[in-house]
Write a structure and sequence with these properties.
Layout: E1 12-13, E2 17-18, E3 27-29, E4 36-38, H1 43-63
Antiparallel strand pairs: 1-2, 3-4
């Protein structure tokens, strides 16, 4: 299997988190079922998740 093969079980942590630091793709197709997931080895994933969490927290604080 090549290093960008998202079906390779070595790149899936606990079977649900895709983690491949050699794969430049931010979004990859899930290996089981349908849909897409994020490459958690990609820096942009963590930036995206941090921004989404900040927006959710800000929305909760504004609603008070």
């Amino acid at each position: 299997m090549d290093e960008f093969d998202n079906a390779d079980p070595r790149h899936w942590k606990w079977g649900i988190f895709y983690y491949n630091p050699h794969d430049p793709n931010l979004i990859v197709k899930r290996h089981i079922g349908w849909g897409y997931t994020l490459n958690f080895a990609h820096r942009a994933t963590w930036i995206f998740l941090t921004i989404m969490a900040a927006i959710a927290i800000a929305a909760m604080l504004v609603k008070r």
